[in-house]
Write a structure and sequence with these properties.
Blueprint lengths: L1 H23 L4 H13 L1 H8 L9 H24 L5 H14 L21 H14 L8 H18 L3 H13 L10 H8 L3 H12 L4 H26 L1 H7 L11 H19 L5 H16 L10 H12 L1 H20 L1
Helix pairs in contact: 1-2, 1-3, 1-4, 2-4, 3-4, 4-5, 4-6, 4-10, 5-6, 5-7, 7-8, 7-10, 8-9, 9-11, 10-11, 11-13, 11-14, 13-14, 13-15, 14-15, 14-16
Amino acid sequence: MVRVYKQVFPYVHKQLSHWRKKAEAIPNQELKDQAVASIKLKTFHCEGGGIYSLLAKENWREAVQFIVAYQTISDYLDNLCDRSTSMDPQDFRMLHHSMTDALNPSNELKDYYYYREDKDDGGYLHSLVLTCQKVLRNVQDYPKVNAYTTQLGGLYNDLQVNKHVRVEERIPRLKSWYEHYRKECPHLEWYEFSACTGSTLGIFCLVSYTLSGDMTEQLAEKVTSSYFPYMQGLHILLDYYIDQEEDEKEGDLNFCAYYEHEELMKERFVYFVEQTNRSIKDLPHPSFHEMIHEGLVGLYLADHKVKTLNQAKGFVKSLLRASGRKATFFYFNTKMYNKLRAIHS
């Protein structure tokens, strides 16, 4: 954590400052607004992802460059799909080709705004994609993980397309999509599977290990199966849990709304915690992955939004108990940090 606060976070903020300047120079007002907002309001996504750079050893700076650029694409496109006037799945698919190209250094850039009226971003999205490609192009072992990053990235893209269409089309599309994967994930409901595809953690882990020089095809397979579905699912379900009230007001899709009752949701979250515990034990540096897992639980449950949720106290206690002492440590430290930050501001 000392390295995270002294090295990683400052470098993450330096990278974000670079991208924010580029975002503020975007000629099209709509694209500019969404790009600036995505950086301003979602900095913590890049901070959290940046922790994976520790796995890259001396190449941690390159890992941060990739993680910040890739996550910035993700947050920017999420804003464009969530908050803009377009409801066209073709448009969403074309936009997300940028994330596929970012993971494949040999891919040529495309006109990612082909299906929308707002087009002139001054080269912003192309620059983000090229940054990701440049990092990966210089990594000798990247071909060993390319199929796995593309697989996880493809699932993420499918989710973004299916969940941002017209309200009446969302659930039928997501259920139909899940049917293609039901045999691979028989223990999940359609909304849980959708949540598992919505995280970028597996990609960050794969890229960081590859940058360390320790990547093998066996490790690539092990990381992917350890992170997907349960670690990634826990990450996104926690994100949706704290956003329930906000999403209800905005009319946004929230996967927690599809649990039949609060007790079932709590049981399933505990199940995800237990499965995550099991799935990461065989990875190299298991204590690192345990820290990520327990940190996710502690950080999300300490969010101020949890106070407003029904039956939150019992929910928080159950998850902290299932996650272990470090999760409780992160929980109380985050609450204290948030209080001090509020007083300071």
